[in-house]
Structure formats: structure tokens, C-alpha cells
Amino acid sequence: MRGGWRWVMACVVALTMAGSLVLSAAGAPSGYPNRPITWLVAFAPGGQSDVEVRRIQPHLEKLLGVRILVEYRTGGGGAVGWSELARARPDGYTVGGLVMPHMVIQTLLRGAEAGYRLDQIRSIAWTVSAPNALMVRRDSPFRTLRDFVEYAKANPGKLAVGGVERLSPSDLSLAQFMQAAGIRLTYVPIAGGAGPVMTSLIGGHVDAATTAASHGVRHKDQVRVLAVSGKQRMKALPDVPTFAEFGYNVTVETSWGVGAPAGVPAEVVTKLSQAILQVMRMPEIRKAVEEEGLTPLYLGHAESQAYVNRLVSTYRELVNLLR
Amino acid sequence: MDPVWQGLANVLTPHYLLLMAVGVAVGSVVGALPGFTATMGLTVLLPFTFVMDPTSALVLMGALYGAAAFGDAVPACLIATPGTPAAVATAMEGHRLTRKGKAPQALLTALVASALGQFTGGLSLLLLAAPLAALSLRFGPPEVFWVGVFGLTIMASLTGKSLLKGIAGAALGLLLSTVGVARTEGWVRYAFGLPQLQGGVELVVALIGFFTVPEVLRMVEQRRTEQYVAEYRPQPGALWEVLRETLTRPLLLLKASLVGIIVGIVPGTGGPIAALVAYNEVLRSSKNPEVGKGSIEGLIAPELANNSVAPAAMIPTLTLGIPGSAPAAVILASLLLHGVKPGRELFAGSHAAMTYTFIWSTFVSGFVLFAVGLLMVRLLVLVIRIPVHALAPVVLSLAVVGAFAVRNNVFDVGMMVGFGVLAYVLRKCGFETGPVVLGLLLGPIVEPALITSLTLAQARGSWLEVFVLRPFSALFIALSVWSLVRGLRGWKLAQQVEAAGEA
């Protein structure tokens, strides 16, 4: 028995050593990066944050010559993951997926309790965005946004619009829409991400739903998208008008990016951001992104921080709509 | 060839059989390690699935998902530690069986029931995907709320001697589940200014604390007075005994499968609830006095239900693009990244061969699981021969590693130890851990569903319409009342029998 245990220990030690040798041999010998990069995902496996890193992971690994280790730090609507990212060592070996406006809403509403400040995270690149869409079931009597608004005007508060939780892009974009159109709808917060929201819509439990337009694209057989936020129509839904076409200023959209702890060396930011954008520009990636109902962003290290700053001031005003 | 049969022919080729063997092996291990779940195993595999065709990816991931639902029974039976939250009932019934010296029977029952669950779940996916998908859409927030309430009524059968302590335990569990950012409203509750508490109490961490730590302490306490478990002797007839006990109970198999399939397609619920509901049903309906005290019959139900969840959860995933469980979400992500769009076309169009290959693989991986499992069980039962002075530290370090691994968070390790001490004290005061865990498990389902339904009632201007006047709401209200009455009566009877036995 004792001999057996010694064997097991010996095997474990040998395997660990062999494993670390393999890992260290895989990295490039000089310069950044020369060992695996940990990529923190602040939302559950299978969510859009996960999809965005998985999409580029194999290509990025090839370009950088090191492995990307995806780790999930979920909870608190992203706060848990971003707190850890903010506290990580700023050496470029810990990066994380960022999501706007979630990141800024957390800090605006919770202050210090969020566990991170926006200035603790350096944006490296913003890769894709999704407009917010207002959608109804295929068999709904509302064929256009105008039908919907007219009914809502005649029946204030009667229409139940489902969305992903409160104080979220769903919530914000609906608040924007209600204000712009001068109508009152009942926002129904649904927990657990866009999946349950779509179930509630397709199952007919709510009258309409508002969430990232990509879900409208995915379920196009069962839902009708009435309008999308943003300035221009989506490639994946060319027949769907924007809110702006009706004169409603609805700007909320969700975007996904990459960041590192503040203080990360400039050359690391440049290198990572160039590599990520290079992958995003690959024709097959671009095609997949657009087919899923997302818009490629291509914001690199230079433009990223300005993009964040702009969103911060926009959402500082918008959040007041919800208070 | 018809895609249905094309799929069957595909799945029997060495390529897919090998993939299933890999999936089953990895799945059993992640399932068996406390703190590691099927979801985590799948995310580890995810990068490898990119270099495969979507069919191979699906088959591999499906096999892993199913096998994890067996793996979690191993530590549950042997050391009373659920490998994943779905093995809570197994940790009660299975471990009691082990303590009677029937460790091989316990593991074999888990294995046979798990493989059968793969078959029944797979059958639902093969034959009833369309109607079940339509059924899953009927479960909106109000229905999910009542399903959760129905789950809470199980409490009576998990309670020990004092009903009051059971209710208090469940309330404690519900309260603990509210820590952190509120799921629908977004406000932070009971975080006491600690950012680490924003993520709330992770169920797996709490389970490790509530089950493993008191169990290790009990091992150490009893070391001097008695054997930790009855001595293990090789029992050549064990497999036949298990097969006989299992296959002669068609009604039990049917009920447990139905529970697993229904819970599998209801959004937001999953294996843990299916297992507990099925366990409750066998406790309630069985005339066998051993059920609840460590029996093969009592173990079949939760393990079978748990495994039929896995294929059933793939029904809304494949037909609607809406994942029926957390592991299914990862499988869906892999499909989407392969450019495969879920929907009816998966069953008819160019992807039909892929879909049916996957569906048949749930059956075949049941066989693979059975074969691999038989080999493993022989080795695994030896765990209980490890002396306590060696086993206790190993289990405790597994607990620490597991608590850390869930979210890679040191704070969680502290939380696990805290829960462990709490559970130990509670147990000494006559509280059972079952109700606490039930509260923790169902809180995150019941509370958000309640809030969403209340908001919905506001829009509709009628509570009655949202909460009662919907067929499935009414059904689950009726079931809850019935379960509560039966549960209380059963509990009273059990107390009387016990009192009579003591007198």
C-alpha cells in the first residue's frame, strides 16, 4: 500500500514537470508574450462574452504564439470578473473581456461597492457591438413600430416588455424609447440572460422583448424585430428600420471589448490590440460576426479609451432616467 | 438514406465511439471531483471542438455532459460529498447504502440508473423533440415560480425529527441565496461592503461546506468508536442484484424519467431539482421501509432523473436555440461558433445527419458509460478501504481545491470552511443539511421568477390571471398542495413509527 502511494506521487510529480516543460517550450523565447495569457470572462460559459473570446482564441494563439487560457469569473453582473481584472498584475498576462454599458452602469450605480473603478482598467480593443432591438412574436398584431406606439398610447402601462434584468441595456434602451415616444410600457425584468427573455417572448408570456438584436437574428423564424437602436440599419436585418427613422433617439447598444489592468506597458497594449484587430479583420470572422447580427467595431488601442470615455458621459445621463 | 438511420450508422463508427469514450472518461472525472462540474469540463473541451466538425464536437460534448451526471454520484456514495449539485440526493441515499457495507451496490445502482437515464432522455430527444419544445415554451416566469414552490414542498421529506428545524433550515438556505447582486433588480444585498460577496454564495461552494466538512469531522470523531463504514467485502452478485432491483420497477423508472425530462426542458432548472423531486417521489410512494435509509430503490430515482435531464435539456437547445441548462449553453455556443444555427432545420435540412448522429450518441454513450463505469467501479470501491487517517486529509484537501476551483477564488475557500463549521454545529443541534441545501438551490429560481411574475401582473392588472389562471400554474399549485399534505402526513407517520419502535 505504502509503495503504491509513493508510485502515485512519483507519477504526479513527473506529469507536472512534463506538463510545465511542454508549456514553457510552446512560448516564444523573447519579448511579449512568452507565456500563456489568461483571459478573464466575467459572464457564464456559453454567453456572448465567452463566444467573443472563443471566436478569436485559435487565431490569436497562432498570431501571438502562446496559449490563451479562458477563465470564468462570474457573478454580480460582471462586477466579480472586472474587480479581479482591475487587481491583476499589469504585465499583459492577465486580460479580460469587457462589456459596455454593463461596466459603466455598475460603477455609476454602486460606486465603491462595485469593487473596481473604470480608471483601473485599460481598454485594449473593442471588437463587436449589437444594437438593441424591440421585438414581438411573429403572430403579434403589431406589424410595425407605429402600431406598437399607437397601442401603447391608448393603453398606458398595459404592454409588458421583457428584457434582461433591471439597470441593464434592455432596461435603459426601453427607458430611452419610452421617453422619446412619450409612452408608458411595463418593463418586465427577467433573470438569467437573453435566453429566458427569448423563451418568454416566443412562449407569449410577454407582449414584446428588448435585448441585443443578435437574438432577434438568431430567432428570426419566431420573432419580428420592430426596430433597432443606432444610426444605421443592420446588415443581417436590412428590412428592419432604426428607431431614429421614426424620430426616436434610442442609442443604447451593447459592445464587447478587451482590457487589461491599468499600468500595463504601452507596447503590450499595442501588440495585443493589433493582433486582435488583425484577427477580427479576417474575412471569415467578419462574415460570421455580421451573420450573427453583430457589428464589427475595429477600435484599437488608440481609439478604445476615447470610446469608453464617450460612453461614460452618455450613460451618466441615461442612468438618471432609471432613478 | 434517411438522416435518422444515417445518424445511427454514423454513431457506430470507431471515430464517434472513440470520441464518446473520451467524453465519458473526462465527464466521469469532472463529475466526480467536487467543485468541478460538467459546465467546467465542457469549457475545457471547447477549444478542441473548434478543430473538429460540428458533429464530432456535439457527440464529444454530449457524452461528457451525460457522464458527469454519473461521475458526481461516486464521491456522493463513497464519502457523502456530492460531486455536483445534482448528486445531493445521492449523497444522502447512496452514502447510507455504503455505510451498510454495500458500496458496490451503491455505485452500480448509480451506474445502471445513469445509463438508463441516458436512454430515456435520449428517447425523448429522438421521438418527442418537437412537442416537448412546444411544451417548454409554456413555462414562463409564473410557471417556473410554481415549479420552484413545488420543489420547496419536498422539504418535509428531507427534514429530520423536527419539522420546525426543517423549515428554519430551508429559510436559512433561501436567505443565503439572496446574498449578492439581486438577479432581476440588480441591487446588492447582504454584501456588507465586500466586493467578493457581490457574486453571492456559489452553490457548489456551499455544498462542499455543508456536506464534506461535517462528513470529514464525523469520520474523525467516529474513528475510535466504530468503523467509518461497514467493512467492504467483494460481492460477486452485486451487479445482478442491482439489475434485478432496477429492471423490476418499471413504474419507478417511468416516473423518474418523466421528472427528468420535464425538468430538463423547463428553462432555468436542471439536474439538481430533477434528482430531488424524483427522490422525494420515491420516498413518498415506496412501501419499502429501507427507502430513505439507504436502498437501491431510493437511489435509482435521483440518478435516473438526473441523467435523463442531460438529453432533455438539449431539446430546447437544438430546436429553439435556447439552452435548457448551463452545460447546454456551452454546447450551444460551440454550435453557434461552428456556424450551425439551431431550429427546425437541424432536424430536416443539411444538418439533419449531424443532429441524428448526436441523438443516437446519447443512447450509445449510455452503453459506453456503462462499460467504462463497470471498470471504474471495481477500482473506486477500494476508496472506502483507505484508513480514515489517510482518507480524511485527502478529502479535506479535495474540498479546498474544489471550493477554490469553482470560481478560482480564495474567498470561496473561506466561505466553504465557514459553511462547514456552521453545518457541523447545525447537525449537532439536530438540523438536517437537506432543507438548507434545498433553499439554496431553489432561492435563485423562485425569487427572480416571483419578481418577474409580479411585474407581469402589474401590466396585466390581475394577479389571478398571471399566478393562477394558467394551466401549468394551476397544475403546479395543485401538485404543491398535494405534495405538502402528503409530505406532512408521511412525516407524521414516520415519526409515529419511530416513536413506536423506540418504546
What can you tell me about this protein's structure?
The complex is a heterodimer of chains A (323) and B (503). In chain A, strands 1, 2, 3, 4, 5, 6, 7, 8, 9 and 10 form a 10-stranded mixed sheet that branches. With 323 residues, chain A is an alpha/beta fold. Chain A is globular and about 65 Å long. Chain A folds into 2 domains: 36-128 and 254-322, D-Maltodextrin-Binding Protein, domain 2 (3-Layer(aba) Sandwich); 131-246, Periplasmic binding protein-like II (D-Maltodextrin-Binding Protein, domain 2). Chain A has helices at residues 2-26, 48-64, 79-87, 102-110, 145-154, 169-181, 194-202, 213-218, 266-280, 283-291, 301-322; strands spanning 37-41, 68-72, 94-100, 121-137, 160-164, 186-190, 208-212, 223-228, 253-261, 295-299. The model of chain A is unreliable at 17-29 (pLDDT under 50). Chain B has one domain. Chain B has helices at 3-11, 14-32, 38-49, 54-71, 73-79, 88-99, 103-127, 129-137, 141-152, 155-158, 163-176, 203-222, 238-247, 250-265, 271-285, 296-320, 326-337, 345-348, 352-380, 388-407, 410-428, 433-460, 463-467, 471-502; strands at 180-181, 188-189. Chain B has a two-stranded antiparallel ribbon. The N and C termini of chain B lie far apart (71 Å). Chains A and B meet through helix 2, strand 2, helix 3, strand 6 and helix 7 of A and helix 3, strand 1, helix 17 and helix 22 of B.
Short recap of the structure:
Chain A is of the alpha/beta class and 323 residues long. Chain A is built from eleven helices and ten strands.
